[in-house]
Design a protein that fits this description.
This protein has helices at about 5-10, 35-45. The chain is an all-alpha fold and about 70 residues long. It is elongated. It starts with a helix and ends in a 21-residue tail after the last helix.
């Protein structure tokens, strides 16, 4: 099983399919070197700000008449 197939299976990331057009994507290079990865990913971090996480719903009062 290739690493792209593993990503699809474990994380549901279709790295071999274009997200815009749905066609096949050819992987032309890869790296596991942390220095290279940092250089590649730093510009991406600067372009997008992560959305704030909402792990719990907003607090609210209990329905009227239930606890009193």
């Amino acid at each position: 099983m290739s690493w792209a197939q593993r990503l699809q299976r474990v994380f549901n990331v279709a790295i071999e399919t274009c997200r815009d057009g749905g066609g096949a994507v050819r992987i032309i290079a890869g790296s596991e070197d942390p220095v290279v990865m940092q250089k590649l990913l730093t510009p991406l971090k600067e372009q997008t700000a992560p959305a704030p996480l909402r792990l719990l719903p907003a607090a609210r009062a209990p329905p009227a008449g239930v606890f009193g």
